[in-house]
From TrEMBL:
Signal peptide positions (record): 1-19
Gene3D superfamilies (alphabetical): 2.60.120.230, Peptide-N-glycosidase F, N-terminal domain (2.60.120.1570)
InterPro entries linked: Cu2_ascorb_mOase-like_C, PHM/PNGase_F_dom_sf, PngaseF_C, PngaseF_N, PngaseF_N_sf
GO molecular function: oxidoreductase activity, acting on paired donors, with incorporation or reduction of molecular oxygen, reduced ascorbate as one donor, and incorporation of one atom of oxygen
Protein name (database record): GLPGLI family protein
UniProt entry keywords in alphabetical sequence: Disulfide bond, Signal
Organism: Sphingobacterium wenxiniae
Nuclease found in the keyword field: no
Pfam families to which the protein is assigned, alphabetical: N-glycanase_C (PF09113), N-glycanase_N (PF09112), PNGase_F-II_N (PF22252)
Amino acid sequence: MKYLFSLLLTTIFCLQSWAQNTYRITYQRSYNDQVSPNQDPLLVYTNPEQTVISSEKIVQSEAKYPYETFYVERRGNLYHRLTSFSATKELATVDATILDRNTYTFSDETKVILGHTCKKATTSVNSNTIELWYTDELGVKGAPTELGQNLGLVLEYVRNGNTKITANKIEPIDHIPTHVALRSFEKTVDAVAYQDAVWKSRFIHIPVFQDEQINFVETPKQDSVLRFAHGTVILKKVKIPVLNKGSQAFIQLIEKSNGDAYDRTGSIFMIADDQPQTFLDGMKNGMNTLPMYTNGDGDEYPGMVRTDSFSPVYELMRFFTPFGVSHFNERANLMGKTWQDSVIYRQDVSEFLSVMSGKEVYIGTYIGNYDGGGHKVSVELTIHPGYSKMGFQKVMSIFNSTNVMEMGGQTYARFFSQEKGLEVTFELPEDAKDVQLRYITTGHGGWGNGDEFVPKENSIFLNGELAFKFTPWRTDCGSYRLYNPVSGNFQNGLSSSDLSRSNWCPATITNPNYISLGDLKAGKHTIRVHIPQGEPEGSSFSFWNVSGALIYN
């Protein structure tokens, strides 16, 4: 009887002692000692059994999904991460090593925070210096991040001397609320799968093509992916949700050779239903059904310029394939060379969101080639929420001379042989401010005197006045040698992929130029592009692929 009574007293004492050592700590973030406005305060609940890192809005069930909560299970020194994707979907992972991963340097410095004497420990994370101020006076451990969880109770975290998380309130509580405390989780996965799921939940992911072949065949197959120009163009309709202001969009392409050894012109483009006639009509019905551009050189160029009723394609990305990456890697063994398995191209295309948001659009990929194996490509569009409250910019496709339907009857853009060059008259429906021309240009003609290897000045005229001129030229092509296993090699030790070119390199994107055109009034305007195109030599000729879209407010 005495034993039971003694055990009961011990249990009560332990429970009281535990309750007395349970705390809720509120933290605020600051930068250069300026408190961040409108923040959701961090909350740490801690006792000798567990620590919970959360926030005020999460605890009050006011946080927007997805959100993340962290738990330290003291008994096993385990660090749990939990993401809530919705009211009914969650995912967790556990790490048994992260809490002891860092080493700390301790100093004799002290300072008082909220009446408690704190000691200083310093560590480094990804080349950032982290200072932790912790106290032993409360008999518990905890911290607002995973760092310093086993030092004591961290009351201030300082990164690089200017970014701080500082406790501004310590409250003794009876217990950690049930809806906050560590519990069993619906689903637990390994850390990599967890991080991937959390990362992808924070933005909109729209797959377009997955490992699709772009090659030259007599009769290409047709399924959910539309194929044109003997299979050298693939096209798919995708639905874009209504997007928030300030969003950013990125297009990503992964390319590898499936048999074609040469560097080829490629383009990712969009067909928007913003005019009575679109480029898709020509793809289906024949390119000769589209408006023709003529400038006196004797040829007709279908589907390359804007008219009152037709809109050329919006070029999202101009890219160039490497010399045979992946498919030919094993045939090109060179000492000290480890060839890449594929090329990943990624580009910001946020300026096109106004013609995407809430709509169905066609996104296509073109690689000019006459090879039966061709290329394999994967394309995806990701849209990321932004912090800006600015609305989307307006955009209008004006011209695109890249002959994406090359194998379907669309001619090479050789019209720069004439002084007139490329001239387009377009109409603005309203006054436009801060107008920019998103201009992509690459020169072609792959022999010694061809425009691929000869710098040529590009001049852009607006309403007869010179608006901008520059010479597009790339001198960094040698940086991409490891993407070009079967690039031709010359007697002087250079590879063909090393050579400087007219604004492109094998295995790279050609970035747009953003040319300021100022404010423009509603009505008709004319843009002219002039390039001194080189003369043909025998059956060889030069041409220029240029695309232009107006971006304005």
